[in-house]
C-alpha cells in the first residue's frame, strides 16, 4: 500500500465534460490504488444548481466503467461535496471557505489544498485573486497548489499578463501548468531511455546525432472546433505546448538529479538557448499548410468546414527546424511537425544518428541508425541498426530491434490525468511546464506567427490524407535529410 496523501481537492468547473470524463475517474483510480484513503475530500463547484445527491450521482456515472467493488466506490463518493457558485463574484467564496474549514476538520486535512481550474482561461486570474483575498489559501497547511489547463495565454503578452495575475496569489512553485502530453507514459520514457542507458547517454550530442525529429500527426480535420481552432491553428494549438514540451526532454542537459528543480533547470538551460527567428529566418526554417480535399473527394477542404471563414489564412499544418545555440547541439537540427488530416495518426520521436565509418569497402552501404520512441497511438521503442545481410557476400541490411507496450502493460499504465493529479498532490513538478519554458515557447511561436501574418499563403496547399505540403519535405532535403516517418 503506498503512502497516503492528505489533501482537499477542489475542481472549478466541476460539472464540465473534462471533470466527468477524466478528472473524477482519475481521482477514483488514485483512491483504488491507495494514494487516497481516509484523509481526503473533493469539492466540485460550478454555476449549475445541484443537490449533494445529484452531484454524487454524476460522480457515480463518471466512474462507472472503473468500478470493481461498489462498496469501495460508494466510500469514495462519500468524500465528494458540491457548491453552486459564480466564480466571478467574491461573495460566493464565503460558503466555500466555510466548507473548506469544515472538511479540513472532519478529515484532518492539515490545511493541504489543491485548486484545479477546469474552466475557461479567462477566469484563471479572477479565481486566483479571490482564493487569496477571501482566505481560501491556508497559512498553516503543508501546501497550497494551483493546477491550470492549457492554453496558458494566446501570445507571450497575454501569457505574461496571466502569470502576473496568478503570481499575486501563488508562487511559481505552487503553479502546476498541465500539459497532458507530459503525463503520457512514453513521453516520460524519453528520460528513461536517454539517461538510463550509457549507450544513448554518451551519444546524445552533436558528435553522434545527425538530427532529431518530432511528429504529432492527426488524421481528423478540425471537426466542430473551428471557433477555437481558426484563431489558434496548429502553431498555437500543438507546437507551442505539446511539441515544445517533448523537445524539452530531448534537448535538455543531463540534470544533476531527477528532482523537479534539477529537471526544470536542465530544461530551461536548453529553452534559453533556443534561437528565436527573425522574419527572414522564419521563411527559411518554417513551413505552414492548410488541408484541401482528399484525393477521392470524400473529405472536404478546411475552407469548406463549418464556421471557417472563406478567406481563412489559418494553418492546419506546421513543420519547422529548431536550433539550440548550445555546445551539445551545435549544428544539429531539431525538426518538428504537426498537422490535421494527415496520412496517419502518430506521435513519435525519431533520433537519427550519424552513419558509422565504413571500413567494409566494396558495395557495402551503411544506413543511419535510428532510435524511435512511439508515443501514440501505440507505445513502443524501435532501434534500427546496421547488421550483416544473410547472403554469402559481406553486405549489410537494416534490422529493427523493437518493443511494444503490451495490452497488459497498458492496463497498468496510469492515464495522463491520473498521473498529473498524483504528481501535483505529491508536489512533483517534473512533468508540468514552468513559467520560463512557457515564456520561451511563446516568444518563439510569436515570432513565427508575426512573420506569417505579414504575408498571405496560397491555401489549400496539401491534400487530405497526405503528410502535408511538399515544402515540408523540401525543408529537410535542403539539409540533406528526410523525414523518417512517411505516414
Can you name the CATH architecture of the largest domain? Answer: 2-Layer Sandwich
The average pLDDT is: 96
CATH topology description of the largest domain = Dihydrodipicolinate Reductase, domain 2
The helix count comes to 15
The CATH class of the largest domain is identified as Alpha Beta
Oligomer: single chain
In total, the number of strands is 16
State the secondary-structure class: alpha/beta
Major sheet attributes? 8 strands, mixed
Describe the structure.
By secondary structure, the protein is of the alpha/beta class. The chain has 2 domains: 143 residues, 3-Layer(aba) Sandwich (Rossmann fold), CATH 3.40.50.720; 296 residues, Dihydrodipicolinate Reductase, domain 2. 36% of the residues lie in helices and 20% in strands. The strands form 3 sheets. An 8-stranded mixed sheet has the order 8-10-11-7-12-13-14-15, with helices on both faces. The longest helix has 26 residues.
Short key terms for the protein model shown above:
20% strand, eight-stranded mixed beta sheet, Dihydrodipicolinate Reductase, domain 2, globular, 16 strands, 487 residues, 15 helices, six-stranded parallel beta sheet, alpha/beta, Rossmann fold
Amino acid at each position: 500500500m503506498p503512502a497516503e496523501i492528505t489533501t482537499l481537492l477542489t475542481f472549478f468547473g466541476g460539472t464540465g465534460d473534462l471533470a466527468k470524463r477524466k478528472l473524477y475517474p482519475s481521482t477514483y483510480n488514485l483512491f483504488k490504488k491507495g494514494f487516497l484513503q481516509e484523509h481526503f475530500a473533493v469539492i466540485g463547484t460550478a454555476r449549475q444548481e445541484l443537490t449533494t445527491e445529484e452531484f454524487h450521482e454524476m460522480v457515480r456515472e463518471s466512474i462507472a466503467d472503473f468500478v470493481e467493488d461498489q462498496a469501495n466506490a460508494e466510500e469514495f463518493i462519500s468524500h465528494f461535496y458540491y457548491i453552486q457558485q459564480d466564480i466571478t463574484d467574491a461573495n460566493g467564496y464565503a460558503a466555500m471557505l466555510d466548507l473548506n474549514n469544515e472538511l479540513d476538520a472532519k478529515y484532518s486535512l492539515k490545511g493541504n489544498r489543491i485548486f484545479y481550474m477546469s474552466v475557461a482561461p479567462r477566469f484563471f486570474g479572477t479565481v486566483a485573486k479571490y482564493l487569496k483575498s477571501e482566505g481560501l489559501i491556508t497559512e498553516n497547511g503543508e501546501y497550497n497548489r494551483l493546477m491550470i489547463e492549457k492554453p496558458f495565454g494566446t501570445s507571450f503578452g497575454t501569457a505574461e499578463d496571466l502569470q502576473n495575475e496568478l503570481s499575486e496569489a501563488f508562487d511559481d512553485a505552487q503553479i502546476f501548468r498541465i500539459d497532458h502530453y507530459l503525463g503520457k507514459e512514453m513521453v516520460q520514457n524519453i528520460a528513461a531511455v536517454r539517461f538510463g542507458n550509457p549507450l544513448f547517454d554518451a551519444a546524445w550530442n552533436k558528435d553522434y546525432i545527425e538530427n532529431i525529429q518530432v511528429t504529432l500527426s492527426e488524421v481528423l480535420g478540425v471537426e466542430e472546433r473551428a471557433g477555437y481552432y481558426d484563431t489558434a491553428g496548429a502553431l498555437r494549438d500543438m507546437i507551442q505546448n505539446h511539441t515544445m514540451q517533448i523537445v524539452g526532454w530531448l534537448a535538455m542537459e543531463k540534470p544533476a538529479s531527477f528532482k523537479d528543480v534539477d529537471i526544470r533547470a536542465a530544461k530551461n538551460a536548453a529553452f534559453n538557448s533556443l534561437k528565436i527567428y527573425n522574419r527572414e529566418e522564419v521563411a527559411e526554417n518554417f513551413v505552414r499548410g492548410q488541408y484541401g480535399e482528399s484525393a477521392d473527394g470524400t473529405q472536404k477542404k478546411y475552407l469548406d468546414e463549418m464556421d471557417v471563414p472563406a478567406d481563412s489564412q489559418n494553418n492546419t499544418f506546421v513543420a519547422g527546424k529548431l536550433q539550440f545555440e548550445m555546445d551539445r547541439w551545435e549544428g544539429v537540427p531539431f525538426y518538428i511537425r504537426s498537422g490535421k488530416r494527415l496520412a496517419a495518426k502518430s506521435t513519435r520521436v525519431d533520433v537519427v544518428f550519424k552513419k558509422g565509418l565504413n571500413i567494409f569497402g566494396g558495395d557495402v552501404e551503411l544506413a543511419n541508425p535510428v532510435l524511435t520512441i512511439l508515443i501514440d497511438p501505440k507505445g513502443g521503442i524501435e532501434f534500427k541498426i546496421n547488421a550483416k545481410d544473410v547472403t554469402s557476400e559481406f553486405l549489410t541490411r537494416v534490422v529493427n530491434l523493437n518493443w511494444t507496450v503490451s495490452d497488459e502493460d497498458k492496463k497498468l499504465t496510469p492515464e495522463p490525468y491520473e498521473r498529473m493529479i498524483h504528481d501535483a498532490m505529491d508536489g512533483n513538478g517534473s512533468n508540468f511546464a514552468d513559467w520560463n519554458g512557457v515564456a520561451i515557447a511563446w516568444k518563439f511561436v510569436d515570432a513565427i506567427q508575426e512573420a506569417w501574418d505579414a504575408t498571405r499563403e496560397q491555401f489549400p496547399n496539401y491534400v487530405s490524407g497526405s503528410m502535408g505540403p511538399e515544402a515540408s519535405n523540401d525543408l529537410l532535403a535542403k539539409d540533406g535529410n528526410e523525414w523518417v516517418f512517411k505516414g
